[in-house]
Specification:
single chain, about 35% strand, 4 helices, four-stranded antiparallel β-sheet, disordered C terminus, alpha+beta
Length: about 350
């Protein structure tokens, strides 16, 4: 139902029932009533209550305006709570501010407390946004799974009954959760929420903004509802990785199932993300098994021990090098090939030379 149609319906009805003397007053009443209906339908109950109370200043009681069936609005459709109804006297346009005020006071409660209590006062939101990365500079690196921390406080007099936050980023390379529900936030209360945020692996070095917009499903918020956090994103850099031998493993024996501990180290000035370790089958009787080989994060100058289980070929002699390599892929799928410098220290057969006469 458009505002123009309502005005035509209402004004025509005034002419028919002979109420021209009250036209100005009733027109003002119905305009506020119509605004209240729209606010009620959008669940902005505080605004709806204000419009209905303004309407009652002009006409305090609920009424029904009768309109002639033959007029151009005879196909008018019933909308919110059926303002337009068919009665024994013809088509009727309902004016019911008291009816909707009763609905608001009945439905919008918290712990049996009516809207006339704290929900008549607007909530006012104060928010702090921060990006928490794995480094002290808090710059978002490509491929990094970082955190967006939101701290929101209600500094108003009224409660936010169903507070929601909507996130947008100024950069197409930044991935962020689009929205979240904070829920009920009473005056003085603070809520802290954490969301994942990341930069695409192919994203460039650039600055970006994250915008948080707040809205309550039941009422308008007072004061500022937009908050912005600015940060810097860094492009992908391949890590420089090395291997160390902690020298804690048992001797490597050909044809036996051996367990070797190795240490993967990051010699870069930046962290390495999403590392996965595997081992080639060169010089082995069967593929190796790697345990503790998935490393989500390896800081600069940090090492992480992993376990390799393998069985060298039987024919290898003592002192023979095992040609197997350690392959480390990162979050970008870039492989780094490392030589673990594995040697056979004991052999079952290869050290014995058998001759026949």
């Amino acid at each position: 139902m458009s505002r123009e149609n309502v005005a035509i319906i209402y004004f025509s009805c005034l002419l028919i029932i002979g109420c021209n003397g009250r036209a100005s007053i009733e027109n003002s009443a119905y305009n506020h009533y119509f605004d209240g209906l729209k606010a009620y339908q959008s669940r902005d109950y505080l605004a709806a209550k204000q419009h209905f109370q303004l309407a009652k200043i002009y006409i305090p009681n609920d009424e029904t305006f009768i309109a002639d069936e033959i007029l151009q609005y005879s196909n008018f459709e019933c909308t919110i709570k059926c303002e337009y109804q068919v009665t024994s006297k013809g088509r009727a346009v309902q004016y019911q501010p008291n009816h909707y005020l009763n609905l608001i006071n009945r439905d919008i409660t918290n712990d049996a407390e009516p809207l006339d209590g704290q929900f008549t006062q607007p909530a006012r939101i104060k928010a702090i946004l921060q990006i928490q990365t794995h480094t002290k500079d808090n710059r978002l690196r490509a491929g990094e799974a970082a955190k967006l921390i939101l701290q929101v406080q209600n500094i108003g007099r009224g409660s936010a009954r169903d507070l929601n936050v909507y996130f947008t980023s100024s950069s197409a390379h930044i991935s962020i959760q689009p929205n979240a529900n904070v829920g009920l936030l009473k005056p003085g209360e603070t809520a802290t929420l954490t969301f994942p945020i990341s930069q695409h692996i192919k994203g460039p070095k650039h600055r970006f903004d994250v915008d948080a917009r707040f809205a309550d499903s039941y009422t308008k918020l007072a004061g500022e509802v937009h908050y912005t956090y600015s940060s810097q994103a860094l492009s992908y850099k391949k890590p420089r990785l090395t291997l160390k031998d902690p020298m804690t493993s048992r001797p490597i024996i050909a044809h036996y199932n051996n367990h070797k501990q190795l240490s993967l180290c990051n010699k870069s000035k930046h962290p390495a993300f999403g590392l996965k370790i595997s081992m080639t089958a060169d010089g082995l009787a069967e593929p190796a098994t790697i345990k503790n080989g998935d490393i989500p994060l390896l800081h600069p100058n940090q090492c992480r021990i992993f376990d390799a289980y393998f069985r060298p070929n039987t024919q290898l002699k003592r002192g023979a090098k095992i040609g197997s390599q350690v392959i480390v892929t990162d979050v970008n799928g870039e492989p780094t090939r490392l030589n673990p410098q594995l040697k056979v220290e004991q052999s079952l057969f290869a050290d014995t030379i058998i001759t026949s006469r």
